[in-house]
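Appendix B. Extra example for self-study. Work through it before the problem class; the solution is given directly after the inputs so you can check yourself.
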Amino acid sequence: DAKTTQPTSMDCAEGRAANLPCNHSTISGNEYVYWYRQIHSQGPQYIIHGLKNNETNEMASLIITEDRKSSTLILPHATLRDTAVYYCIVSPWTNTGNQFYFGTGTSLTVIP
Amino acid sequence: DTAVSQTPKYLVTQMGNDKSIKCEQNLGHDTMYWYKQDSKKFLKIMFSYNNKELIINETVPNRFSPKSPDKAHLNLHINSLELGDSAVYFCASSRARASYEQYFGPGTRLTVT
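Solution. Structure tokens for the complete assembly:
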């Protein structure tokens, strides 16, 4: 079952930063935070993940609070192609296989 | 080149029929998965195979039987289809069982009438 809480929907102006929050107050010490997104009628796409340090890659930045109970995904310059449902997932790192439970996510609409 | 492909893309069938969905990945990955996305858009893992060995088997009716003939293929066979089986089924793969990045296929929309 999903262990995260996200707003149902958000809007962002094209070219501006999109900040997507996620609450995971019951996160355990061995659980990572993953972000995926699903563009309409496509399969989900990996964005970024982290444990406790902030992370950045070519797609986005991930800011995790010090107590690890919440995080924010930042898309620095949103484009129309970033319109999608964004999923925040909490899952332990195991050798037996990563079981990702996707919640309802945040539907991000980038407005021209 | 398509990384993870599924066939068919759409499948419409009647209750009680048996159907299969095929999945292939050309990424050289060791681990493959089946997910189900229902009408409320919840995406749940069903099965995971690593090098043809079943490693994750969630609470799924035994009418659903995955088969992995080799590590590049993971097929899903469904017996005695029910209305509640209507959903979008996604296949995915990852480099290894503990990989953080899973690559998803385009999905198969199954409609049971």
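Self-check: The mean pLDDT of chain A is 92. If your reasoning did not lead you there, revisit section 3.
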